[in-house]
Design brief:
148 residues; alpha+beta; Thiol Ester Dehydrase, Chain A; 3 helices; 7 strands; 45% strand; globular
């Protein structure tokens, strides 16, 4: 399967609305790379209070979207018993650059690459685009932990 819709993503991630940000994952290369879609809408939960007259998607939510896409990529590539009853937690963001504001009513396209893994610790890099214009990029790490 080379494409996951939002319902399939829900099966992989514990996130739920309004915090489940990614709507689709496609072009999946097992445990290596994928592309995610975030539908940034005028009625997205953050629009009301984040610069209401000139809404933009907060940078922290772009980083969260990167993390969710990477978690879905990883969970999709692992045996279910490896991630069942587990959570993926962000460990650190080494670099995050926000190049252009993400304005609601767009599709934010996230290109995710797994750089390396060591046991339960993974490192990723990602780039975010709207209409082929780079909006942000980041390098981050995450770990898989037991649910408690």
């Amino acid at each position: 399967m080379n494409k996951l819709d939002k319902n399939q993503i829900r099966e992989l991630l514990p996130h739920r609305e309004p915090m489940l940000l990614i709507d689709e994952l496609y072009d999946i290369k097992k445990l290596s790379s994928a592309t995610a879609v975030v539908e940034v809408k005028k009625d997205s939960f953050f629009v009301q209070g984040h610069f209401p007259e000139n809404p933009v998607m907060p940078g922290v939510l772009i980083v969260e979207s990167f993390g969710q896409a990477a978690a879905a990529l990883t969970a999709h590539g692992l045996d279910k018993s490896t991630y069942e009853n587990k959570l993926v937690f962000l460990m650190g963001v080494e670099k995050a650059r926000f190049r252009n504001p993400v304005i609601p009513d767009c599709k934010l396209i996230l290109k995710i690459n797994a750089i390396r893994s060591h046991g339960k610790v993974w490192k990723y890099k990602g780039e975010a685009f709207v209409d082929d214009k780079k909006m942000a990029d980041a390098i981050w790490s995450a770990t898989i932990v037991d649910k408690k």
